[in-house]
């Protein structure tokens, strides 16, 4: 049974040692493991609380439903 829990016990002791001796490494590991977890957990939580995505921004200008009139009066003919 000790062989199954051995790596987890060593990992905990390693993190505990790093938290005291070099906190930069410890917090880098903590933030690095929280990132993927949040990427999977946050979207369902947002939907649960009623988040609706914003309407898409138009990428083209709507053209009017009428024939084009020629431009007059600008002396560019």
Task: Explain how this protein is built.
The longest helix is centred in the middle third of the chain and has 26 residues, at about 25-50. Helix 1 (about 1-20) crosses helix 2 (about 25-50). The protein has about 80 residues and is an all-alpha fold. It has helices spanning about 1-20, 25-50. It has two helices and no strands.
Q: In short, what is this structure?
A:
With 77 residues, this protein is an all-alpha fold.
- Would you list the SSEs in sequence order as H and E? HH
Q: Point out poorly predicted stretches.
A: none
Strand content: under 5%
Helix tally equals 2
Mean pLDDT: 85
- Strand count, sense and closure of the main sheet? none
Oligomeric organization of the protein chains: single chain
* Total number of strands: 0
Give the termini separation. 93 Å
Helix content: 55-70%
Shape: elongated
Q: From the helix content, strand content and strand pairing, which structural class follows? A: mainly alpha
Write the layout of secondary structure elements.
Elements: H1 2-21, H2 23-48
Highlighted features:
2 helices, 77 residues, 0% strand, mainly alpha
């Amino acid at each position: 049974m000790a062989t199954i829990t051995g790596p987890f016990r060593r990992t905990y002791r390693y993190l505990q040692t790093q938290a005291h001796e070099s906190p930069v490494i410890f917090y880098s590991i903590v933030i690095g493991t929280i990132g993927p977890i949040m990427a999977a957990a946050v979207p369902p939580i947002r939907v649960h609380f009623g988040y609706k995505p914003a309407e898409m921004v138009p990428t083209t200008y709507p053209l009017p439903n009428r024939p084009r009139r020629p431009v007059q009066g600008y002396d560019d003919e």
